[in-house]
Every structure is written in structure tokens, then in C-alpha cells.
Amino acid sequence: MIQMLHEKGMRSEHAYTAAFVSIGLSILAWTASHKVEPGAGLDRADRWGIFVGEWAPTFFGLGLALSHYEQQDGTLVAGVHDIRKAQSSTKEKEAM
């Protein structure tokens, strides 16, 4: 699965960015729920914040898995364009 995500262009930086964004969204969801639904109470706002906040560890784990794959693959510092270029040249060589 990690290899497939990497081949589709997902990089560890993307997963780390998504993790940090989900932390911000968690705070935003808590604040919005607390202000928009004042009758629902603090418990409902907490549930919204926790729900979105649970995404961050998943994205951090995915980022670590992608990072390990990129280290083994030798593409940790390469750009997506460089990776695709290398893959296409490998496929051309195999076709010959």
C-alpha cells in the first residue's frame, strides 16, 4: 500500500502536512462547534475536536511509513517530477 501511494505521487511531506492541518482543524472544529451550537454544550464541542484530532496520528504514521520507503528507495530528497522521470526511463529500458 505504501509503495502504491508513493508511486501515485504521495510523499512523506504530504502526510506530515496533513497531520499538522488536522491539528489545526481539530481546534477549529472545537471552536466552531462551541460557538455555533451553544445549546449543545461543551461535550459536543469536545467530541468534534477529538474526532478530527484523531486523524493526526494516522497521518504522522503514514508519513513515517512513506519516509522509510523513500529512504529504502533512495527518493527521500528527490522531487516527484524526478521520481516519475526515473520510473518512466526504467519502464522504457524494460520495454527494450
What features would you highlight for this structure?
96 residues, mainly alpha, 5 helices, 0% strand, rod-shaped
In words, what does this structure look like?
By secondary structure, this protein is mostly helical. It has one domain. Helices cover 82% and strands 0% of the residues. It has five helices and no strands. α2 (12-36) packs antiparallel against α3 and α2 runs antiparallel to α4 (55-73). The longest helix is centred in the N-terminal third of the chain and has 25 residues, at 12-36. The radius of gyration is 19 Å and the shape is rod-shaped. The mean pLDDT is 83.
Helix content, binned percent: over 70%
Q: Structural class from helices and strands?
A: mainly alpha
- Count of helical stretches: 5
Integer tally of domains: 1
Oligomerization status of the protein chains: single chain
Ranges where pLDDT stays below 50 over 5 or more residues in a row are: none
Major β-sheet, in short?
none
Silhouette: rod-shaped
What portion of residues belong to β-strands?
under 5%
Helix-strand string: HHHHH
Q: What's the N-to-C terminus distance?
A: 28 Å
Mean pLDDT: 83
Radius of gyration: 19 Å
User: How many beta-strand runs?
Assistant: 0
